[in-house]
Amino acid sequence: MTYDFWYWPGIPGRGEFVRIALEAGGIAYRERGREDGADVWAKRDSYSRTPPFAPPWLDNGELVIAQTANILMFLGERHGLAPDDVKGRFWTSQLMLTIMDVTAEAHDTHHPVDASAYYDDQKAEAKRAATVFREQRIPKFLDHFTKALGGAEYFGGDRWSYADTGFFVLMSGLNHAFPRRMVALSGDYPTVFTHWDRIAALPELRDYFASDRCLPFGEGIFRYYPELDGEG
Amino acid sequence: MTYDFWYWPGIPGRGEFVRIALEAGGIAYRERGREDGADVWAKRDSYSRTPPFAPPWLDNGELVIAQTANILMFLGERHGLAPDDVKGRFWTSQLMLTIMDVTAEAHDTHHPVDASAYYDDQKAEAKRAATVFREQRIPKFLDHFTKALGGAEYFGGDRWSYADTGFFVLMSGLNHAFPRRMVALSGDYPTVFTHWDRIAALPELRDYFASDRCLPFGEGIFRYYPELDGEG
To answer: What is the interface pTM, i.e. ipTM, of the complex?
Structure first.
């Protein structure tokens, strides 16, 4: 059974958290919207039951599942991408939701007052929001993930889960958007920076990283504006 | 078995989404932080495994579960507050996550650039963010929930779930923060306004609404500032 995976073309975006889990898990999927040029909004509006609010969503003909962390909990359960005991299931989901919270905050640094307007129309507000995010929020989150990992190799223990691959995407995104800040913080949070490297080296992801399915960050959630990284 | 439910004292906040589900489900819980004055941050920092990033969280001695939508999925599964088939489980969770997205956006209207600073220090930015939220975002969300409900009595069919009680909290919060706007929209979205009334009338919630456990909205996520509701 192949999943249709719907997301905006051209950017990794929130879809990347799902995509990397599909790839790491060796789960067959077809990238819709990006590869075939299908109209994402038209497809969304075609669902009469369990409609998504926005992409990403999965559709296998029987199930239509949206909301990034929710899709991942489903995949985790069905394809063994997370522990299967109660504690492990909800712990993995909890971490993923916090990862998505950081992601939303990272987005809001460049679009703090109007998500549908241009960055240039909210640069002053963005500068202020980015300063708070950079100085206060990133350290808080890195501290949390350090504690969450504890002395383990992976968040759930001895095997990677979708929270680990999601964390990889988050760290990569933060590093894209705030490279100067992340370098400055790397010495204070060695555990999570080592974890980022560990996931980057997973054999299950080698083919994906080398493929053209793996897009660079660009004009999506995680954006690089030097002035938001504390320069100038 | 009684749950310890940890949340900030004095406000409904994000905790309210969990609290109303506990109440509607007749699930025994002890309100920590609010009732006993226990130190929420100190307790958080005491967890060595599966630490919460922030309240709310549940703790029953064996499990510590944080993230509002995650707590609710757990309660839904364990206490029958959601459908138990795969489609129904993930649909309910999907809706709840969208409810939490709207909630975060509602919060960010009064704190668009610095969540740790005063509203008075970001009034101009707030006014702009609130205009976008009020004019563009609320209608989009009400439209989505109208479609999500379809012709059914409840989001999951013929019985309420935690997504319905969560939706009630969301509508009540929006109505507290944007009363003028919500009245103006009520004629365009009769399905969801009727649904709000339906949940308000659930017999399972009558005692709760009459109790002093049910706090009014105040200085939390949903705040009433007339200027953010389009006045003046």
So the answer is: 0.97
